[in-house]
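Exercise 7.
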Amino acid sequence: MEKMYQGWIGTFDSGVGGLTILHELRKLLPEENFYYYGDSLHSPYGEKTREEIIKLSETITDAMVEKGVKALVIACNTATSSAVTYLRQKYPNLPIIGVEPALKPAAQKGEDKHVLVMATKATLKLEKFQKLLETFKDQTHVDSVVCTGLASAVERGELHSKEVKDLLHGLLDPYAGKVDRVVLGCTHYPLVKDEIKEILGEVEFYDSSYGTAKQLKNRLREEGLLVNEGRTGQIIFDSSKKTEEELALYKRLYQMMD
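Solution. The predicted structure, written as tokens, is:
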């Protein structure tokens, strides 16, 4: 069987959110080829069970390996939290990079600030995140909000719609003018950063995109897999929905970030 993406970097998310990670990966690694897969047919992951998320993530990873990718980025907070350990055990020789809510840098920056973590139910209830909250509870004030429905609204691509704004008001109005830093704990959320700021005011945003890109570059260098040929790499978009409309949406949202 021909490995059509031999030597490429596989990247996947539950849908369009991982495009925010992909954009940062491309900025830091412009010579690499990226194969992006959005599982929009099964989005959102944040409202599924851990077992469901692991199964979906495994199916995608198996297909990526069959296609010959040299490394994998799980560009989804929920999938990382639920499945990264399992996938690393299954594929110990494949560099697998995940993303996690950027609570640590937001809390460690210093000063007595109020931090708000926006994330899915699946991410917030996991033991690793709860341990992070416990670690920083004496350093800064941290609140978290389960943003049910937000990833689904973003997934439809209507970022500035009344639906998105009404949903955000319902989630964030209690925190308006009261928080200093916002941790965007789902890769979909940076796509509506402007709408969030309209409600909360002037806040600092923290997400995992740059840290993920830096970690990938370091890992590729360590493994001797880094491309250094002075070329411009390719990006291929793919989706479990397999429609022209969906792929057009991926490309449009990605280009919006340029």
